[in-house]
Amino acid sequence: MSIVASIPRNLSVRAICTLVQLSNGNVADKIVENLLPRASDGDQVYQTQRLWRGMDYGHVGKRNWKPNLGEISDAYQKGGMLTDMQTYHRIRHKRASTIPKEIAIPVLSSPLSFPGALVQLIEVGYSQSLSKVATPVSRIAEQQKWFVNN
User: Fold this and answer.
1) Residue 131 pLDDT exceeds 70
2) Residue 32 belongs to a domain
3) What DSSP state is assigned to residue 144?
């Protein structure tokens, strides 16, 4: 008998979501596939779980990060939350500069559709990398003689 098959079917959505967070890889996927489809769209715990899974936390900030932006946005708009301290610490220590443009552009184009922690991660990563190559405004002003009286 598999681990998932041994889980009672009458568990609450909250209990199932807790099991998913405590499980790894394939077991978590099987729990989601077999036990969570019965959850309602209005259940905040369920939406938070969808958000967490969409974030692909094992790879955040790495080149192989593959978040499901559709799932993240949908779950966020239905009440999913990324506000607890564990989430904050998982995100803030990642190297945001490695986030691909294919992820950054949709998030930054529609920031109200995504959790603030994700938007901030991308904004910080891109502002740091852009600041390294951007010409300071003071240098441009000096070169173009903005403040020189003729």
Assistant:
1) no
2) no
3) T
Range of the domain at 75: 40-143
Q: By CB neighbour count within 10 A (0-12 exposed, 13-18 middle, 19+ buried), where does 31 fall?
A: buried
Q: Tokens 């681990």 label which residue?
A: 3
Say if 115 falls within a structural domain.
Answer: yes
Query: Looking at the domain assignment, is residue 122 inside a domain?
Result: yes
Q: How far apart are CA 93 and CA 96, in angstroms?
A: 9
- For the chain, the domain total comes to 1
Tokens, residue 37: 């489809």
- Closest by CA position to 37, among listed 21, 58, 60, 20: 20
When pLDDT is averaged across residues 104-133 and rounded to a whole number, the result is 81
Question: Which tens digits make up the pLDDT trace of 62-71?
Answer: 777 788 999 8
Q: Is the separation of the CB atoms in 51 and 76 below 8 Å?
A: yes
Residue 17 domain-assigned? Answer: no
Query: Which tokens in the block code for residue 126?
Result: 């891109």
User: Token pair of 80, please?
Assistant: 């999913």
Q: Which of 32, 89, 91, 27 is nearest to 56 (CA)?
A: 91
Dist CA 92 CA 121 (whole Å): 7
Q: How far is CA 93 from CA 20, 97, 116, 128, in A?
A: 23, 12, 16, 14
Identify which of 46, 40, 37 has the alpha carbon closest to the alpha carbon of residue 15.
46
